[in-house]
Write a structure and sequence with these properties.
The complex is a heterodimer of chains A (331) and B (926).
Chain A lengths: L22 H25 L2 E6 L3 H16 L4 E6 L15 E5 L1 H10 L5 E6 L1 H10 L5 E5 L4 H11 L5 E6 L7 H10 L3 E6 L6 H9 L4 E3 L12 H11 L3 E3 L2 H6 L3 E4 L2 H18 L6 E2 L5 E4 L1 H7 L6 H14 L1
Parallel strand pairs in A: 1-2, 1-3, 3-4, 4-5, 5-11, 6-7, 6-8, 8-9, 9-10
Antiparallel strand pairs in A: 10-12
Chain B lengths: L5 H57 L2 H12 L4 E8 L4 E6 L21 E8 L25 E9 L2 H51 L13 H90 L4 H31 L8 E3 L1 H18 L2 E6 L8 E3 L1 H18 L3 E12 L3 E10 L6 H6 L9 H7 L5 H11 L3 E7 L3 E12 L15 E6 L3 H14 L1 E6 L3 H7 L8 E6 L1 H4 L2 H13 L4 E5 L4 H9 L5 E3 L4 H13 L8 H8 L10 E5 L3 H13 L3 E5 L2 H10 L4 E5 L7 H10 L8 E6 L4 H10 L3 E4 L4 H11 L8 H4 L13 H7 L4 H27 L3 H15 L5 H16 L2 H25 L1
Parallel strand pairs in B: 6-8, 12-13, 12-14, 14-15, 15-16, 17-18, 17-19, 19-20, 20-21
Antiparallel strand pairs in B: 1-2, 1-4, 3-4, 5-7, 7-11, 8-9, 9-11, 10-11
Helix pairs in contact in B: 1-2, 1-3, 3-4, 4-5, 4-18, 5-10, 5-24, 6-7, 7-10, 19-20, 24-25, 25-26, 25-28, 26-27, 27-28
The chains are: A alpha/beta (331), B alpha/beta (926).
């Protein structure tokens, strides 16, 4: 069901005058002022309408959308919610009418960018790899994205926080994550960590590559890449590293549940909060401060069973987050 | 199966269901076992493959064959696993292991060695296990990646199982099941045989015992050790056998005893039979002797009765005072009744002994009927009855049969009718029911208006020595043999007799007889004489009119009937119908009706036509009154039918000169006296009394009598002169009647062709036969009466002489009438003296009442009451011998009827005087 709420709020800009002009000028000025008010009122009414658009069949995105809507509602923002199906084409509404379109996940963003020309778009729940694809596809100025992935540096800080001494960190990059190789290397070197990176083109290369990698590293850092670290390869990777006694650092809470020792991830409230902050600023300034945002806030998840099996003594998750924050703040 | 013995049945019942159940269960469980083993083997193979597949994922994923080897080694330890092979995604064998210890001796059984290996293969796909690693899962709908990770097949696990062990187990199960089934069946059969023996043997013993018992054999005691119901049955059969044997023994004893007694009884019966035979012979002999005795007795009784009756007859004609006349009348009546009884007994005796022969002679039925009617008319008249005879128009003139027996039957029937009818009429009809050229079946009916009979009386009729009511014999007398004899006689004549009767309404007795029509002289010439003549028939009584009409029909005369006197003149003067004569009838109610008679006389005398009046009266005085009233041409209704018809014929044909024939008519009618003066008769009898009697009778009739005391004298007289008739006694000295007759017939003498009448008291058929064989013409049974003699003359010499019984009766002047006539009373009571006395006593008791009623009615001047009282008195005197009172009451009734008031006073006092006189007489004599 589509819920369409319109709650237009008028923002009146009052100019400040310090001198008393001629009566004729006063009349002319008054007429001009009224004309400007009418124009301003019309413009405000068109640009300040928020459209939250999300995939109709994804529970998680719908819950994030609902959370954002609730927050907007709390803060008296006018908004409209719309759920689109994956194959909705063309849209049954004029997207450009809205002053801001909040698009949840990569595919929705793709849809909005395709069918709107001038409306500002804010995307969230988009992975780094998806963002790269969209960026190549659309050269859009009034478009900003809150990435789903944590920055590599934050992962490297986590490894430091987990272990008291430095470990040799290894990772495998697939064709989608290969672009971040330099960024990763830079982060590791900035953090004075040893990082071994192996590249694979296809998944079948994973086992042999991983066998080689785990022989020369102490900890495996899993990065989001659908070729290297996906749900089919996770079991083999975990079993293989387990046999070698190498802990795996995941990139999601689910990874930790699957067998990784620890991971940094963003919770829904954290994403909602950061999204509201961004769009609040946008509504105030009528532009995005950044084209790409990384999650400001995060959470740390650990798997004590795996850690115990591997003989690793884990710090509490809050402590780890605190250590990471300290490092990030220090940077 | 129905013919199977118990043994077969028991075995069948025990084995057949068991066999069916056992085979069914064995088949079912064996099949289940085989299926189970087969399924288990398949499940096992697939289970191993399915378990190995995920376990092999990591080994195949990582290419670690050691891990796979370890897995396979462990799986091969499972029983029946023959081979395990693991391949990669390209179906290239990564590792394959064979179970080399599977067919070692310790693992194989003997059965296994006979089974060919048929390995079973199972496989399972090895796939990668998906584990979610994304917190915000990117689905194809949300992801922009074209390459999304999918579930990947990385290899196969192939498991090969050996089926030998399973097959061996299946065969083993089958074998064991079969063996168990066989063992069970054998055990069941043994048990069944054992049980059947325990049941069948006693049953066979019982069956044999029962069969032997049924065949009557004696059996030993059956063993009763079977127990249970069979034991009870054995005990029961033993008890039953004992009982039967005991019963048989008792029965045999009884049979022996009964046989002995039967034999004894048979002996006694044999003796009794012999005795009975002797007794029967004696009885037959005695019966014959009795019959002969009866015949002789009848002869011996009849002979003196002949004298008694004859001389009584003569005595009655002599000068006697009143008392003497009463005595004579009583003697004559008693003797006549006695003779009737004797005749009945004799007839019955003859019929019973089968010695009664039926004649077959030519006779004129009209004559017979005339005789009978003539005989009974006076008696009927005396009893206040009309006796009407309807002739049958086409009756043959002569018939062949036994006239005397027909007469006897009809006389009996009419006699009964007269006896048992107190008022009304008696009609005699002769009807032809069937006729051919030579045969005729006649039906005689006698219808009366008498007392009739109830159903009980009807059933008792025709039974010997019984009458319809026991009171009848008291009241009317009689032996009770009349109807029995009549019935027997009818049967002897191949006829039948019967009756219809209704109590208090009357009876009709009928006699049906087949008779031969006589082929000679069977023409009645008179029937053709009077055709085309018309007469006026005045007859108030319909039955009498019918009878006269029938006679006129016989004559071919057309009768114009009327019941009114005043119509006679009118009919006679009708020019369209010329009348030749008038026939008028005076019936009982009108006989004393002077006005009617006078009126009739005047009417008849005024019309110039010949007439004849038929009077129902038999009273000479009454007829004289009619004559005196002016009716000169009178004929009695009881006269012979032929005579009446002749008279009518002459009357009709003498139209022109009837006046000169009036005297002739009168002679014919009134002066019907006997005239035998021209006849010469020879009377032969050794009994002087009989001779005297017959002589006296016949001489009084002017007959010239010659008497002979024996046969020789008879022959002598016959040789010397002609006699018109010879009466011949049969049993006489010197020459008996037979010899004398034969001599007369066989010698040339004047009397060779003279009619000879046998005189005998023996009515036995043998003697009758001898009579006719000897040449005699007729038989006259003793005792001879005057009437019989006259009848004989009438039959054999047509003299025209006729005795009219009613004229025999002497009438008395009123003063001469006795106050009490005991004889008359007895006659009116059917010969029962006691009954007569009883009736007389009843009348005496009623007389004061009668007198009182008469006086009351007279004083009140109620003519109707007086008439009623007089009628009642007259009716009361009708059955008692009180002639004077009866006459007085009848006169008074007539005077009242005729309304002759002048004479009423005198008649009334005469009646009262008669009552007083009778009461005084009774008082004096008692």
């Amino acid at each position: 069901m589509n819920v369409f709420h319109v709650n237009n709020r008028r923002l009146i800009h009052t100019p400040i005058c310090t001198y008393q002009p001629h009566i004729l000028y006063r009349v002319v000025f008054l007429l001009l002022f009224l004309l400007c008010c009418l124009v301003a009122q019309s413009a405000f009414a068109d640009n300040k309408t928020i459209l939250i658009i999300s995939a109709s069949n994804n529970t998680f995105t719908k819950s994030i959308a609902a959370s954002i809507a609730r927050t907007l509602d709390e803060h008296k923002f006018s908004y409209t919610e719309k759920y689109i199906a994956a194959d909705t084409n063309p849209p049954d509404i004029d997207l450009d009418q809205h002053s801001l379109i909040i698009a949840l996940n990569s595919k929705t963003t793709d849809f909005v960018l395709q069918h709107s020309k001038k409306a500002p778009v804010f995307s969230l729940l988009v992975s780094q790899q998806s963002y790269e694809i969209l960026k190549q596809k659309y050269n859009r100025k009034n478009w900003s994205t809150l990435l789903l992935d944590q920055p590599y540096q934050r992962h490297l800080f986590l490894i430091d926080a987990l272990f008291d001494k430095k470990h040799k960190i290894g990772t495998i990059l697939g064709p989608y994550s290969l672009k971040q190789k330099n960024s990763l290397i830079d982060s590791a070197s900035g953090n004075q960590q040893s990082l071994s990176i192996e590249n694979i083109e296809i998944t079948d290369q994973l086992i042999s590559t991983l066998k080689d990698l785990i022989n020369k590293t102490d900890v495996l850092l899993a990065v989001p890449d659908p070729v290297a670290f996906n749900k089919n390869t996770i079991r083999g990777i975990l079993l293989l590293t387990y046999r070698k006694g190498i802990p795996v650092i995941g990139f999601s809470k689910s990874y930790v549940k699957a067998g990784a020792v620890a991971a940094i991830y963003s919770e829904a409230e954290q994403i909602t909060r950061q999204t509201f902050n961004i769009i609040s600023l946008f509504l105030k300034s009528d532009h995005f401060t950044q084209a790409l945002y990384h999650p400001d806030d995060f959470s740390v998840a650990t798997n004590n069973n795996v850690a115990h099996t591997l003989g690793i003594k884990l710090k509490p998750e809050n402590k780890l987050k605190q250590l990471i924050k300290i490092k990030e703040d220090a940077k | 199966m129905n013919n199977w013995g118990i043994k077969k049945r028991v075995l069948f019942l025990a084995l057949f269901p068991t066999l069916i159940i056992t085979i069914s269960l064995a088949s079912y469980f064996s099949f289940n076992q085989i299926s189970y083993l087969e399924n288990t083997l398949h499940q096992k193979g697939q289970l191993i493959a399915n378990h190995l597949a995920p376990a092999s994922e990591y080994g195949v994923f990582s290419g670690n064959l050691d891990i796979l080897d370890n897995l396979i080694e462990k799986a091969l330890l499972e029983k029946d696993v023959l081979n395990i092979t693991i391949t990669n995604a390209y179906d290239e064998t990564l590792i394959s292991r064979q179970n080399k210890n599977l067919y070692t001796a310790s693992n194989t059984s003997i059965i296994s060695s006979f089974i060919d290996e048929q390995p079973l293969s199972f496989n399972s796909l090895i796939t990668t296990t998906e584990i979610n690693i994304e917190d915000f899962e990117e689905t194809p709908e949300t992801s922009l990646f074209t390459e999304t990770p999918e579930t990947k097949r990385i290899g196969h696990v192939y498991v090969t199982l050996s089926s030998i062990s399973t097959r061996a187990q299946q065969i083993d199960g089958l074998l064991k099941g079969f063996l168990i089934t066989i063992a069970g069946l054998i055990l069941t059969a043994l048990l069944a045989i054992k049980i059947s023996h325990s049941v069948v043997n006693p049953m066979q013993n019982l069956t044999q015992a029962v069969r032997r018992i049924a065949q009557g054999e004696t059996i030993d005691q059956i063993n009763t050790d079977s127990g249970g119901e069979i034991g009870s049955l054995e005990s029961g059969i033993n008890t039953m056998a004992n009982e039967i044997q005991q019963v048989r023994h008792d029965l045999q004893t009884q049979i022996d005893k009964a046989t002995f007694e039967l034999k004894k009884t048979l002996d006694e019966l044999e003796i009794q039979n012999i005795e009975l035979d002797l007794a029967r012979n004696q009885a037959i002999s005695a019966s014959q002797i009795k019959s002969e005795f009866l015949a002789n007795m009848s002869h011996e009784i009849r002979t003196p009765m002949n004298g008694v009756l004859g001389f009584t007859e003569l005595l009655s004609k002599s000068e006697l005072d009143e008392q003497q006349r009463d005595y004579v009348t009583t003697i004559r009546s008693s003797a006549s009744n006695l003779l009737t009884i004797i005749n009945d007994i004799l007839d019955f005796s003859k019929i019973e002994s089968g010695k009664l022969n039926i004649e077959n002679i030519s006779f004129n039925l009209s004559h017979v009927m005339d005789d009978i009617v003539s005989m009974f008319t006076p008696m009927a008249y005396q009893n206040g009855l009309d006796l009407i005879c309807h002739p049958y128009p086409d009756l043959p003139f002569t018939l062949n049969g036994d006239p005397s027996r027909i007469r006897q039957i009809i006389v009996n029937l009419i006699g009964n009718a007269v006896k048992f009818t107190t008022s009304g009429h008696i009609i005699i009809r002769t009807i032809v029911t069937q006729q051919t050229d030579d045969k005729i079946i006649l039906k005689f009916t006698v219808t009366d208006t008498g007392i009739g009979m109830d159903n009980i009386s009807k059933q008792r009729l025709f039974t010997a020595f019984t009458q319809a009511d026991t009171s009848i014999s008291r009241k009317f007398g009689g032996t009770g043999l009349g109807l029995v004899i009549s019935k027997k006689l009818a049967e002897l004549m191949h006829g039948d007799i019967g009756f219809d009767s209704e109590l208090n309404k009357g009876s009709t007795f009928w006699l049906s007889l087949p008779l031969d029509i006589s082929q000679s002289e069977n023409i009645n010439p008179k029937h053709q004489l009077l055709t085309d003549s018309s007469v006026i028939l005045f007859e108030p009584n319909s039955q009498n009119r019918l009878a006269i009409r029938a006679m006129l029909d016989l004559l071919g005369v057309n009768a114009i009937e009327t019941g009114r006197i005043d119509k006679i003149h009118e009919l006679a003067s009708n020019p369209d119908t010329p009348i030749t004569a008038i026939i008028a009838g005076i019936n009982r109610p009108n006989i004393n009706n002077a006005l009617f008679i006078k009126n009739l006389a005047n009417t008849l005398n005024k019309i110039d036509l010949p007439y004849i009046v038929i009077s129902s009266s038999f009273d000479k005085t009454e007829n004289q009154k009619i004559y005196d009233a002016g009716i000169k041409y009178l004929i009695y209704r009881c006269s012979k039918q032929e005579l009446i018809m002749q008279t009518l014929s002459r009357l009709i044909h003498s139209t022109e000169g009837y006046m000169k024939n009036k005297s002739e008519l009168k002679f014919v009618t009134i002066n019907n006296e006997k005239n035998l003066a021209h006849l010469r008769v020879l009377l032969v009898d050794d009994n002087a009394i009989n001779l005297k009697l017959a002589t006296t009778i016949l001489e009084s009739r002017g007959v010239d009598i010659t008497t002979a005391a024996n046969g020789e004298e008879a022959i002598k007289y016959a040789s010397n002169g002609y006699y018109d008739l010879i009466f011949m006694d049969l049993h006489m000295p010197k020459a008996d009647g037979f010899q004398a007759t034969e001599t007369i017939r066989n010698t040339d003498n004047p009397c060779q062709n003279t009619t000879i009448i046998a005189l005998t008291a023996n009515a036995m058929p043998e003697e009758q036969l001898r009579v006719f064989n000897s040449g005699m013409n007729d038989i006259l049974l003793k005792p001879i009466t005057e009437k019989q003699l006259i009848d004989i003359f009438s039959r054999w010499h047509n003299t025209g002489a006729r005795e009219i019984n009613g004229l025999e009766k002497q009438d008395h002047k009123d003063d001469a009438l006795p106050v009490y006539d005991e004889n008359e009373g007895t006659q009116l009571a059917g010969g029962k003296t006691e009954l007569a006395a009883e009736l007389f006593e009843m009348l005496i008791k009623e007389l004061p009442d009668h007198k009182s009623r008469l006086e009351i009615a007279k004083n009140a001047d109620h003519i109707d009451d007086l008439k009623y009282a007089t009628h009642k008195l007259h009716g009361a005197t009708s059955y008692c011998g009180v002639p004077k009172l009866r006459k007085a009451s009848r006169d008074l009734e007539d005077i009242i009827d005729h309304k002759e008031t002048v004479k009423l006073e005198q008649a009334f006092y005469n009646t009262l005087a008669a009552i007083d006189e009778l009461l005084n007489y009774h008082l004096k004599n008692n």
